[in-house]
Amino acid sequence: MLELEMPAPLIAVVDDQRDVRTTVRRGLERHGYRVHPFIDGTDLLEALDYLRPDCILLDMRMPGLDGLSTIAKIPPHLRHIPVIFFTSHGDIPLAVEAMKNGAADFIGKPATFETIVRKIEAGLVSRRPSAEKSRSVVKARELISELTKRENEVIRMACAGMRNKEIAARLDIGARTVEFHRFQAIQKLGESSLLKVAKIIEAADGEGGCDASIIQGGR
Prior knowledge:
The chain is an alpha/beta fold and 219 residues long. Helix content is 52%, strand content 11%. The protein is built from 9 helices and 5 strands, in the order βαβαβαβαβααααα. The protein has helices at residues 18-30, 41-47, 67-72, 92-100, 113-145, 149-159, 164-171, 175-188, 194-205; strands at 10-14, 34-38, 55-59, 83-87, 105-108. α3 links the parallel β3 and β4 (83-87). α5 crosses α9 (194-205) and α6 packs across α9 (194-205).
């Protein structure tokens, strides 16, 4: 059986200086990375609607949206992407501030490609569990969004340990109607058991979601 090769990590390089973007892109491509250059923070943020880089190299000082403003505007569901700042010597205090706001590391200019690659690899390794968790959360929320309001109510109550008759009384609907909505929810979520559905809800909600350990029978 043939194994599919994983694509090389995609690195977003954000710098307003064209020569810097070109040099970094060529150097990283020689080291086996895929590279997508951006002229500024706004350019990057717009691309995040459709592009998912594995790491972001972000210049600290740029006209318009600077590095600190850019990292602050990265959507919450993409905060697992490691952001590494390019800084000059005088920007070190800003780089420290950036790390307090979620940056993975910073690289002082000028830097060798050995240093850049080492920082990228460290960022990719450190954020891998977060990335996997984030993808699971996004998938779970997409599945939950397919449910109707009533299906969502019923399946959450079922996951919380309530029996069909209890759910019917709480929602003032018939027990058969509860069974129907429960069945529909399980089908839409693509699972065969309430236990697995509970895990999807837990992933979508994070802490405070329904506890799979308390699930009981339906009737």
